[in-house]
Amino acid sequence: MEKATGSPLVGGSYPQKNAEILSSQYGINLFLAGLLLTFAWAVHAVGISKSHLLSYLITLMLIQLLWMLWYLGRSCTQRRLIRDKDTHAGARWLKCGITLFAVITLILDSFKIGYYIDFSNCLSPTEGIFPVTHAVHTILQVYFLWCHAKDIIQSFKTLERFGVIHSVFTNLLLWTNGVLTESKHQLNEHKERLITLGFGNITIVLDDHAPQCNCTTTTLCSIFSQGIYYLYPFNIEYHILASTMLYVLWKNIGRKVEHHQQHKTPFKFHGITVGMIFGLAVLTSTIAIVVVYLIQIGRSKIKSELALTMFYLHAIFVLALMCTAGIVALLIYRLEDRSLDNSKNPARKLDAELLVGTAAGSWLLSWGSILAIICAQAHPKYTWYNLPYSILVIIEKYIQNLFIIESIHREQEKANDDIKTLRIVTISRGSTLSLTPAYKEIYNGRGAPESREVPCLLRGSVVCRTESHGGAKAETSPEKSSITHSASDVSFYSGNSVANNKRRILKNIAAFLFLCNLSLWIPPAFGCRPEYDNGLEEIVFGFEPWIIVVNLAMPFSIFYRMHSAASLFEVNCKT
């Protein structure tokens, strides 16, 4: 099917290309229909209710469940067959991450079931069926991705394309539904925070689609409603990860891969002490900032302003450090003369696209904040810290993306480069050494199969002989040989020392950026989002539009930090 994989059958590639195009168009139309249905429910379109939207989503999930069961059953009957696997797809960190978010999503579904039971008198039956279906869908999908995310499907390719792309856009629609529902939940709380900060002139008709009846158990209803609010961000991340892994599976259908052994490079803490210390310091301080922020924000105007100022100053300092570290790493790369690996690699290509694509979410929010600061008529003091913060967010992601993408495209050093770091032990007086040809090549830094030179050291005044091409023998005095080897040793070790120092610096930078990205993932993931609480953006763009924009962009920003951390972990192992 793929032209780059060799010489595919001409007759077989054309229908498969058509199947790829048809399946992608099917998925897009599926998504657009669901998107308009979601929008119609949000704006109370005539004749459209939440039960219609949930019925559509339930139908999509049931179709995906049937396809996954069919695929799993067919895989069991053919388990003895040797199947092609994409070793770069379905990384372990990705599977662990999606499992964690899936567990929290199951808790969310249980809360929704409890919420429905308490309000069952006035809620549609679809609101009870949806979380049950979603829980079953989540369990089977995670199992499917753990077992088959690396598959390269070579049979029933047309049918599988439609099944996989259906799964991709089903998860995207579930993500969209989660984003909209979360934004509806947040409207009331964030308006109260903005009123505390003095933005009382924001006018909006709040609409959270609350049930029109009383709860049977008030305490449980409060727990369920608040729990749903806090668990939605994890549900959103789960569906993003699932759609990403399924998209890779879809791209791999029918692909031919070269069978070669993938070398796994273990992670080692040796040599990255400095980067780990600074990174852990950033991580610890970030956790403390988040705790204080969540406690102080909304308490009073002074406490809210102090919380925002504290967050911005800390973020500015961390982002400045990350920019500096990234620039140093790029300068080291400019000083090195190592070629780039330009071979086709779908997983590496997707990694680069995800870095740039998900960074656009943060860039959108940052440019919105910059525009709001420029256009706003009144500027409280704390809002000015938002300007350097937003600018640094743009620059830091730009630099970090360059560093990660270049790192994953750089060719790994040959095995000889690592062997060259072996120490040549000086032979004490009275011993004899005869270097084997392999170690002679390591010592001289080049292969010389045609040469018969074997350095030998005997007691004190032994003459070393080298057989020339003409058969004559040249004699070299011990003093001259000693000077020659001493000079080559100095040159060899100095070159290796510089290379090792560069490698050590790069590993420390990668470790530091890895922990910094984990640190910057924590605030938005756990509700510390100054984009909501700053106030200026809501004044300029409007309250509900800005909340929806933030809820659309924030999941990408959170995913970017997670994906960057995983990529930097790989860079650290590879360096």
UniProtKB/TrEMBL annotation:
One of its GO terms (cellular component) is plasma membrane. Keywords: Cell membrane, Hydrogen ion transport, Ion channel, Ion transport, Membrane, Transmembrane, Transmembrane helix, Transport. One of its GO terms (biological process) is inner ear morphogenesis. It is a multi-pass membrane protein. The keyword Transmembrane helix applies. Its main location: membrane. One of its GO terms (molecular function) is proton channel activity. InterPro entries: Otopetrin (IPR004878). The chain crosses the membrane at residues 26-47, 53-72, 93-117, 129-146, 229-250, 271-295, 311-333, 354-379, 509-527, 539-560. It is found in: Cell membrane. Belongs to the otopetrin family. This is OTOP1 protein. The lineage of its organism: Eukaryota, Metazoa, Chordata, Craniata, Vertebrata.
